[in-house]
Amino acid sequence: MRVLLKVMKVSRSAYYAWAEKRKEPCEKERSIRAAVKDVFYFHKRRYGSRRVSDELKDEGVKAGRFVVSRVMREEGLVAKYPKPFKPRTTDSRHTKQPSPNLLKEAVNTVFGAGEAIIGDITYLPLIGGKFCYLAMFQDKVTKRIVGWSVSDRMTAELVVEALQMALRRSFVKRNAIIHTDRGSQYASNAFRDLLRRCGLRQSMSAKGNCYDNAQAESFFSRFKTEIDVKIFGSVEAARREAFDYIDCYYNRIRRHSAIGGKIPEFEKRLRKLAAKGCGNMEKPQSGLSHIPTATATRF
Fold first, then answer.
1. pLDDT for 83-126, tens place per residue?
2. Closest CA to 121 of 91, 79, 99, 143
3. Distance between CA 169 and CA 241 in Å, rounded?
4. How far apart are CA 51 and CA 36, in angstroms?
């Protein structure tokens, strides 16, 4: 080493300073790799490089998306991605008059939280070739699932219970738009009576046009991809899985690119600020006094 330093005309102190600097990137790289893997597996392989990078940024780890993407590729960390196929669950073969598409009419309207709610139904497979059904309502602005229900029957009661949950939680403002497809459940007297009693406006997509309700379709696609169970042992097991994913993860932890990488829980924090006089956010009025207690949502 002495001979090499003499030939290169480099002092011993300069060499060791250079060698010490070369160690830093290695330690930093190991730290980033460990952090990336921690976030990836904490979210059960549901996060791609963009969301992992956002999570690390909030934790104070300096790692851009391209660095995270490279690390994930080198470590073989592949996120779950939804499949495009979805069986048909909408039965619009009924004689009820469909409601107008209020969202299409209000295309230039800027909605606030609780003013526009999207609803839909999907199937969940059970052992033995049977199915149960998940109905949900999602805030168009915050992406929060404001209400949901699981049942072995795809009836009007299924969507009524899901909307009642949203109303009890005060996530729906009076005069809000409730937008769904033209399914018979949403055209039923029970569902429309609930909307009328709570001062809500019904909106329906065009016949056969799934793109009008793309937000709900996107959620169901994510739900089926990101849960660990693919076939449920019972309706109760499906209900527990829906609760774990929607109320414990999707609404509280999961980041959403559509709202700038934030989580729907930020709406709750804004309300707390408004209650302290730090903002002008209006408290949602749900019309709870009109909801019969005998028809409470079953968990």
1. 654 545 555 555 678 889 998 888 788 899 899 999 999 999 99
2. 91
3. 20
4. 11
CA 6 from centre of chain:
64
- Residue 157 three-state SS: helix
Q: In the chain, which residue ranges form alpha helices assigned H by DSSP?
A: 2-8, 12-42, 49-58, 65-75, 102-105, 156-168, 189-197, 214-226, 235-245, 266-275
Total residues found in the chain within this entry: 299
Q: Which residue bears the tokens 């956010």? A: 281
**CB count in 10 Å sphere of residue 204:** 23
Burial class (CB in 10 A: 0-12, 13-18, 19+), 37: middle
CA distances to 121, 183, 188, 211 from 98, rounded to whole Å, are 17, 9, 10, 17
* HEC per residue, 60-90: CCCCCHHHHHHHHHHHCCCCCCCCCCCCCCC
Which residue segments constitute the domains of the chain, with CATH numbers given?
A: 9-75 (no CATH), 102-295 (3.30.420.10)
What pLDDT, on a 0 to 100 scale, did the predictor assign at position 258? 66
Say how far apart CA 158 and CA 151 lie, in whole Å.
6
